[in-house]
């Protein structure tokens, strides 16, 4: 019962906060619960991130498939500051994601904070949830900064 109530609250937060992704996700999960398909929740939890990343990657790769990115775009990318910075940003993001994955493996209960933080970011900062790995990776960075400054956790 508490799970359904939380999902309804998330639907309302999504609608009020104008976050259709949050509202839709909560609606779909509520429907799964109300239709008594809870047996699929572990599969959704286990494979949902992979499917989301698959569709995100597909949408990013469409310009390649559509032929809108040419060989000259690659050379421009490798010889310009924005291109070099984009390469660096991509490499750093994947490194940070790997640290986030380590954190999630070693401290799985941190997911509660990541989810609540993501909801706050979606609703109040107009953010877009792209996955818990980056959020966990940023958490690792913040944790290390906090420890370096002298905090203890």
Automatic annotation (TrEMBL):
It is a multi-pass membrane protein. PANTHER family: UPF0756 MEMBRANE PROTEIN YEAL (PTHR38452). Pfam families: DUF441 (PF04284). The chain crosses the membrane at residues 49-66, 78-98, 110-143. It is found in: Cell membrane. This is UPF0756 membrane protein NQZ67_04440. Belongs to the UPF0756 family. It comes from the Bacteria. Keywords: Cell membrane, Membrane, Transmembrane, Transmembrane helix. The keyword Membrane applies. GO terms for cellular component: plasma membrane.
């Amino acid at each position: 019962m508490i799970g359904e109530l939380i999902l309804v609250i998330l639907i309302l937060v999504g609608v009020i906060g104008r976050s259709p992704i949050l509202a839709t996700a909560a609606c779909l999960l509520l429907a799964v619960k109300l239709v008594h398909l809870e047996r699929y929740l572990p599969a959704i939890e286990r494979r949902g991130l992979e499917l989301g990343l698959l569709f995100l990657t597909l949408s990013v790769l469409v310009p390649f498939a559509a032929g809108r990115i040419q060989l000259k775009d690659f050379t421009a990318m490798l010889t310009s500051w924005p291109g070099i910075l984009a390469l660096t940003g991509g490499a750093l993001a994947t490194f940070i994601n790997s640290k986030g994955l380590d954190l999630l493996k070693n401290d799985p209960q941190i997911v509660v904070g990541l989810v609540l933080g993501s909801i706050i970011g979606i609703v109040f900062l107009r953010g877009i949830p792209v996955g818990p790995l980056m959020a966990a990776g940023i958490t690792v960075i913040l944790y290390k900064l906090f420890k370096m400054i002298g905090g203890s956790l």
